[in-house]
Amino acid sequence: MDPDQFNTMPTRIKVALAQMDIVWGDPAANLAQARSYAIDAARRGADVIVLPELWSTGYDLTSAVDHAEPLTQGIFAETARLARTQSIAIVGSCLARLGTGRIGNTAVYIDAEGRTRAIYSKTHLFRLMNEHRHLTPGSELAFFDTGRGMAGLAICYDLRFPELFRCYALAGADVVFLSAEWPHPRGDHWRTLVRARAIENQMFIVACNRAGRDPDHLFCGSSCVIDPTGAVLAEADEHPALLFAELDLATVSKTRADIPVFADRRPELYS
Q1: Residue 85: which CATH number?
Q2: Start and end of every CN hydrolase domain (predicted)?
Q3: Among the options 122, 131, 181, 224, which is catalytic?
Q4: Could you confirm whether 254 is annotated as catalytic?
């Protein structure tokens, strides 16, 4: 893409975060919830709606083999249809069949025309919820063009690995979309780490957590949007909510120019 052409593109994105109370192991009920949130978000002018981690099933991993579907079928096809009919991009993770018996906790970015623009399977599996027993970790990051700026995808526990977010920043990401099921009692960790990833990488973090509880965990909600300076643009409490914020992606380059962190890095000392 010609850089001059890219610079003429709109740089503002209105995002919506659907802090759902996921129904355990019930894709149909959760799709109905997601559809309702997406319709509302599109009506209110959002360009993108972000759903939580494993939004179609929750952490019903003992039934992962039954829930997982190919990336072009089932819940993924329904999500693409929803994006297309409502003219809104959709981000969120579900259980995916990755071939040869592998199942991933896999996030997709589907654009407003229903096209899958990015696929990311969670690279850091969370042992405290037995992901390592049921899922295969991803082996690639997802860095992609939204049409208004560059973005990356991450999922929940990835938030504890700053290297992942730094990779996106060094590649030129303006924003990372993060889907999560982050439980109590670590809500303070969630709020601190989301802001830290935004501040240290001077980019937007759009972080959608779930609300409610499953058979084993109470979740802390607190979905939020953080700007490149660490300012909180929007934040939910612990209850189900549809949250909105507008991102001006032009502030990323301004922030990086004001405090030239990337120019002052010493990578020869880090390896």
Answers
A1: 3.60.110.10
A2: 13-249
A3: 122
A4: no
Across the beta sheet with 204-208, the strand order is: 143-145, 150-155, 175-179, 204-208, 224-226, 232-235
Q: Round to whole Å and give the CA distance between 108 and 184.
A: 26
Domains in the chain, number: 1
Joined together, the tokens standing for residue 162 give: 């700053």
Gap between the Cα atoms of 262 and 126, Å rounded: 30
Q: How many residues does the chain have?
A: 271
| Nearest-10 crossing angle of helices 162-171, 187-201 | 30
140 is catalytic: no
List pLDDT tens digits, range 193-236. 999 999 999 999 999 999 999 999 999 999 999 999 999 999 99
Q: Which two tokens stand for residue 6?
A: 């890219």
| Structure tokens belonging to residue 31 | 């799709």
Decide if 53 is catalytic: yes
- Catalytic one of 69, 94, 131, 156: 156
Has residue 271 been placed in a domain? no
Strand (E) positions, 40-87? 48-50, 69-70
Sites in the chain below the pLDDT cut of 70: 1-9
